[in-house]
């Protein structure tokens, strides 16, 4: 039976990419990416943000409050894949407006260099139905969207659209692969933009709009760790299409030196079959747990062979 310390790294590790975290806090009224609400009274508020300054429009007379970049810079515009963009997050609030349970949506656009002419636009959007728009008077709410920039095909849950009003599908010959390398406008909608809505009035604000490409470390999670049952381990944030190995031990929490670094497992360490991450950087494996395993503590850790990064360590009692 193989042990983790008997393995060697196959091939050179990929070089790490420069990372950054661009956050628009609107301090001192600065708005470098030209964010604008679809309203009529934009205001830079010096107090009441999360914290400090924030950007508000107290007369959004529309069926959906929406926010978009007008002059995207830095990580906000360009090749999201090459830049390793993986998250867009922000804080939002509704000061006054109708009570609604509308979802939140992120839109990535390629305006073809003509932002004032939507007819030639191609874009993709993700509607997060697990959250709702900030409720009136409830204060600040935080939202975060995963941006699957390393995927070469339209990711699950995302929809393609084109033209002036979310016509389904990209234009002929256009693909997600092209879009994610040519983003020049980002939009945030407080609803599903393809859904029907009534023309109403909102007073909304936003703060701390963040785009992030700081490296994500691989994450190992076990579910169903029960004797006599089937457990599934999942590694996320791995290199898309790359190999992942996971080891486990019942002997203790180490530490043990391996070619990949110190791991939180004691010998003997059993290595599971090599896994391959999908286009979203997720790899999984399921296995039966013997009934006699109940009561033992499972110590486990893995490594993404594409990046050379270790996962978090797991120490869980088998129920």
Explained architecture:
This protein has 1 helix and 24 strands. The protein is mainly beta. The protein folds into 2 domains: 192 residues, Jelly Rolls; 102 residues, Immunoglobulin-like, CATH 2.60.40. Strand 17 and strand 18 form a beta hairpin. The two termini are 25 Å apart. The N terminus is likely disordered.
Which descriptors would you attach to this protein?
319 residues; mainly beta; Jelly Rolls; Immunoglobulin-like; 2 domains; seven-stranded antiparallel sheet; six-stranded antiparallel sheet; 1 helix; 24 strands; disordered N terminus
Strand order of the largest sheet: 2-5-12-7-8-10-11
CATH-derived topology of the largest domain: Jelly Rolls
Average pLDDT, all residues = 90
Content-based structural category: mainly beta
Topology at a glance:
Layout: E1 21-24, E2 36-37, E3 42-49, E4 52-62, E5 66-68, E6 87-96, E7 104-110, E8 122-128, E9 141-146, E10 158-162, E11 167-168, H1 176-179, E12 185-189, E13 200-212, E14 219-223, E15 230-236, E16 243-249, E17 256-258, E18 261-263, E19 270-271, E20 275-276, E21 283-288, E22 297-304, E23 309-310, E24 314-317
Antiparallel strand pairs: 1-13, 2-5, 3-4, 4-13, 5-12, 6-9, 6-13, 7-8, 7-12, 8-10, 10-11, 14-15, 15-21, 16-19, 16-20, 16-22, 17-18, 22-23, 22-24
């Amino acid at each position: 039976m193989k042990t983790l310390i008997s393995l060697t790294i196959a091939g050179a590790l990929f070089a790490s990419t420069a990372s950054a975290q661009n956050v628009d806090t609107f301090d001192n009224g600065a708005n470098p990416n030209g964010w604008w609400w679809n309203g009529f009274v934009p205001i830079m508020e010096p107090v009441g943000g999360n914290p400090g300054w924030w950007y508000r429009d107290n007369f959004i007379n529309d069926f959906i409050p929406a926010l978009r970049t007008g002059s995207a810079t830095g990580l906000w515009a360009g090749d999201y894949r090459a830049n390793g963009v993986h998250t867009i997050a922000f804080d939002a609030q509704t000061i006054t407006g109708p009570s609604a349970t509308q979802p939140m949506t992120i839109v990535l656009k390629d305006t073809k260099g003509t932002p004032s002419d939507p007819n030639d636009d191609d874009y993709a959007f993700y509607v997060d139905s697990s959250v709702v728009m900030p409720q009136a008077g409830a204060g600040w709410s935080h939202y975060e969207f995963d941006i699957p920039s390393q995927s070469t095909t339209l990711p699950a849950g995302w929809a393609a659209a084109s033209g002036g009003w979310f016509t389904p599908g990209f234009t002929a010959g256009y693909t997600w692969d092209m879009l994610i390398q040519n983003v020049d406008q980002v939009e945030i909608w407080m609803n599903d933009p393809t859904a029907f809505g009534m023309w109403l009035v909102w007073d909304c604000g936003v703060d701390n709009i963040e785009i992030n490409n700081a490296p994500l470390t691989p994450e190992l999670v076990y579910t169903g760790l029960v004797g006599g049952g089937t457990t599934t381990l999942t590694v996320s944030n791995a290199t898309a299409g790359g190999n992942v190995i996971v080891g486990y031990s019942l002997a203790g929490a180490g530490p043990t030196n391996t070619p990949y670094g110190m791991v939180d497992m004691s010998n003997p360490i059993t290595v599971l079959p090599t896994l391959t991450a999908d286009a979203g950087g997720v790899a999984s494996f399921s296995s039966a747990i013997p009934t006699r395993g109940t009561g033992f503590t499972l110590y486990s850790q893995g490594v993404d062979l594409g990046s050379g990064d270790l996962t978090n360590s797991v120490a869980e009692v088998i129920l």
